[in-house]
Amino acid sequence: MTYLSELFASRELFYNLTMRDVKGKYRRTVLGQLWSLINPLATMLVYTLVFSFIFRARPSEGDPSGLDIYPLWLMTGLLPWMFFTRVVNGGMSSVIGNGGLIKKVYFPRMHLPFSVAGSVGYTWAIEMGVLTVALTVFGGMPLIWVPVALVFMVMLALFALGLAMLLAIGNVYFRDLQHFTTIALQMWMYLTPIIYPIHLVEDQAERHGQWILDVYKLNPMERFVSVFRELLYDNRWPDLSDSLVCVAWTVVMFTLGFLVFKRSEKRLAELL
Amino acid sequence: MSEAAVVVDDVSKKFRLYKEKNDSLKTALMRGRRSVHEDFWALRDVSFEVPEGSTFGLVGRNGSGKSTLLKCLAKILYPNSGSITSKGKVASLLEVGSGFHPELSGRENVYLNGSILGMSRKDVARKFDEIVEFSGVRKFIDQPVKNYSSGMYVRLGFSVAINVDPDVLVVDEILAVGDAAFQAKCKEKFAEFRRAGKTVILVTHSMGNIRDMCDHAAWLDNGTLRQVGDAQSVMSAYTADIGKGDR
C-alpha cells in the first residue's frame, strides 16, 4: 500500500513526464500537433485503398446506426490498435531509454511507462474525438456512447500498460525482446479483425472447423476492437461476454505487469 | 553528539561481475543457464551515523565504494544486507541536469526537473525566481536548453537541485561545476544549508573542500570503513595513508 501511495503522491511527476513527451514531440515542426492527426489519416487512406477498393473487404452495416463507410469502420478498430502498439513499444523502451535518469535520481520508476501511456493516450483521445465527430457527421449517434467508450479506453490503456511493464523488465535482461516485439505486434495486428471484418474468419471456420474461430477469439485485442466497434460504429451495448473478457484481461495483465515491475524496480539501476 | 540524521547499519553491497553476460536471448538459450559471474563486494559491513546538522565528508581512493554508498543513500541502489534509515526528506545531487529535455525551454525544464527531484509544482513556482537567479541564465530561460552552453546547462540543473530543500542532501563530486564565481555561490549555499540545521553528505577528492566544509568524515577503503569521526582526525589519517604511496 505504501508503494501505491508513493506513486500517487508523485502524480505531478507523471503529469510532467507526460507533458515532456507531448510538448517535446512536435517541437520545431510547422504543423505541430496536427501531425498526430495526419498520421492516422494517411494510414486510413492506404488501408481503404488496398482493402476496401482492391480487396473488397465488406464489413456488415452498422446495426442500428446504419453506417456503411469502410474508412470510419476501419478507424474505430485501428485507432485503439495503434494506441495499443504505441503504448507497448514506447512503454517497453521507456526504461532503457531513460537509463541515465534511473541511474542518477531516485523516483518511482513506474512513472516512466505510465507517462508513455499518458502522452500516447493524449493523442489517442484527440483522434477518438475527431473520429466521433466524423461518425456523427455521417449519420451515426456515437455521442451517447462516449462515456462507456471512455471506460473501455481506460481499460485498454491499463491492459497495454500491464503488457508494456512486463516487456520493459524483460527488455532490461534481454535486449532482443524489443525487436521480437515489433514483429510480434505486426503479426498480431493481422490476426485481429481490424482491417477485415470478422465474418470472413467465421466463414472459414464454418468451412474448416469451429476451432479456428475459438482460437482466433482467444486474442484479447479482438474483444477490445469489437467492443469499440459496437459502441461507436454500431451504437449499441457491447456484447456482455466480450466486455467481461476485456475486464478479465485488463485485471490480469495490469496486475501481473505491476507486480513484476514493482519487484524488479529496485534493481533497475544496476541492471541497466 | 546530537541525534543521527542518517544511520547506516551494517550495509553490504555486492555487484556481479559478468564474465559472459547473457543479455540476448540467443546467448541465454545457447548457454542454457543465466550467465557466468563472480561476486564483487563494493561495500562490506559499513556502519556509521551521520549527526543531524553536520556536513559529512566521504573520502577514499578511487573504487573504494564511496559512490556506491552514496547511491545507496540516495535510494538508487539497494544494499544486499543491512539498512539505511534517514530522518526526513533525502535529495541527491549525483548528476545535474539529467532529465532535461533538449527541445524544451529552460523554464519548462526547471519544472520537469524539479518534479523528478520530488518537488511539487507549487514549490517550484514559489522558488522559480530564486532558481533562475542562482543559475544566472535568466536571459535565456525561455530558450530551448539544447542551445545552452554546457556551463549554463549544469548551472541550471544545479540550481534546481540545490533548491529542493531536503533535510538531508547527498552530493557527489559536483562542486566542480561552473566558474569560480559560481562555485563560490555554491559554497555559500551549502553554508546556508548548514546554518539552517540541514545535513549534507558529500563525496569529494578535494582536500580543501573537506577542510573548509566538513565537520565529520568517514574514510572508506576497498569497501570497508577504515575510520569515522571528526573531519580533522579522519583527514590526517587519510592523508598520512596516501603519503605512504600505493601498496
From TrEMBL, chain A:
The keyword Membrane applies. Keywords: Cell inner membrane, Cell membrane, Membrane, Transmembrane, Transmembrane helix, Transport. GO terms for cellular component: plasma membrane. GO terms for molecular function: ABC-type transporter activity. It comes from the Bacteria. Pfam families: ABC2_membrane. It is a multi-pass membrane protein. It is found in: Cell inner membrane; Cell membrane. InterPro entries: ABC2_TM, ABC2_TM_bact-type. GO terms for biological process: lipopolysaccharide transport. The chain crosses the membrane at residues 34-57, 69-89, 110-138, 144-168, 180-198, 240-261. Residues 31-264 form the ABC transmembrane type-2 domain. Belongs to the ABC-2 integral membrane protein family. This is Transport permease protein. It comes from Labedella populi. The lineage of its organism: Bacteria, Bacillati, Actinomycetota, Actinomycetes, Micrococcales.
